[in-house]
Amino acid sequence: MKKIEHIGIAVKNLDTANKLYSKILGIEPYKEEKVDSEGVITSFFNRNGTKIELLQGVKKDNSIDKFIEKRGEGIHHIAFEVEDILIEIKRLKKLGFKIINEQPKKGADNNLIAFIHPKETNQVLIELCQKI
Ligand code: ZN
Question: How many other CB atoms sit within 10 Å of the CB of residue 128?
Fold first, then answer.
């Protein structure tokens, strides 16, 4: 693990949340991106290397709407940057963690990503991400 790459926040309305976080951070999102594999749209803020990802569900049965239904809006995941995601998945599996995506997939913002199951991480969804 290198560092926290970003913190993901589940929101009901991306436009409203963009305006809110623009006020808090004093900057505009540097990108908005649809992630088809997840059925979500995302926006990213970068304040001196600290990144926030806002996520809104768009497709039916997406994980963000399910999360909001269960727990309300709020912090959805913490993403750690890793050097080599395959090696990291292997290492964590050996330690007994359940990896949701054993085959990493393409996530937002040019990253290969995989998630560790939150049941084994104090209900915190952890994303591993490797820059492509
Ligand atoms: Zn993320």
Answer: 24
Question: Is the distance from CB of 12 to CB of 99 less than 8 angstroms?
Answer: no
Structure tokens at 130: 């490797």
| Cα distances (Å, whole numbers) of residue 58 to 20, 64, 69 | 20, 9, 14
Q: What spacing in Å lies between the alpha carbon of 96 and ligand 1's midpoint?
A: 23
User: What pTM did the predictor assign?
Assistant: 0.93
> Phi and psi for 22 in degrees, rounded to 5?
-65, -40
Q: How far is the CA of 6 from the centre of ligand 1 (A)?
A: 6
Over residues 38-84, the pLDDT tens digits come to 899 999 999 999 999 999 999 989 999 999 999 999 999 999 999 99
Between the CA of 125 and the centroid of ligand 1 the distance, in Å, is 10
95: CA distance to ligand 1 center in Å? 23
